[in-house]
Amino acid sequence: MKSFQLYLVVASSLLFSGCQSVQYYEGPPRTKPETAEVFVSTYEVLPVSVYSINGKVERFSYSKRIYLLPGEYTMDLRSAPYKKVGSYDGYIYRGFFKLTFHAAAGKTYTFKSMQGNKTTMDVNSRLCVYEEEQEAPNSKANWTNEFRSPSDDAANIQCAKVDIQKTE
Among residues 149, 74, 130, 68, which one has the least CA distance to residue 105? Predict the structure, then answer.
C-alpha cells in the first residue's frame, strides 16, 4: 500500500510540475503588489500561449502565470496548431501575435482573442491584452485562481492582428 501511495505522489508531482507560476526577473521573490501578473493561457476558441518575452524564448506555455517587474515588455504569443477549416492542403498552421505594453505593479494582464469568423482563425483575427487590478472584485478567475479571463470592466490596452504561418 505504501508503494502505491508513493507512486501517486510521484505521478502527481510529475503531472503538475510544468504547470506553475514563473518569476521572470532576477532576485528574490516579491509580493504580488510589487509585480505585474500575466496569465498565460486563454480558454477560448483560439487558445494562445506566450512564446517569448523581449525576444527571449522560454517554455512559458507550461506555466499558468508569469510575474514581471514593472516595465515595458514585448511579448510574442502563438496559437495552438490547427488545420484550416475546409482546407485539404495537409498543412498545420499557427497564428502569431506581437504585443508591446507597459506592465505596472499590482496589475493583472490577460489576453483575449477575437476571431474573424468566430469559429477559426483568419486574416481578421486579432489578440488583445487587457489590464485590471490583481484583486479586481469582478475578475473572471476560475475556482483555483490559476486561469483568468479579462473582466467586463478590464481596460483593453493593445491589440495585434494575426500573422498566420504554416508549420512543419
Answer: 68
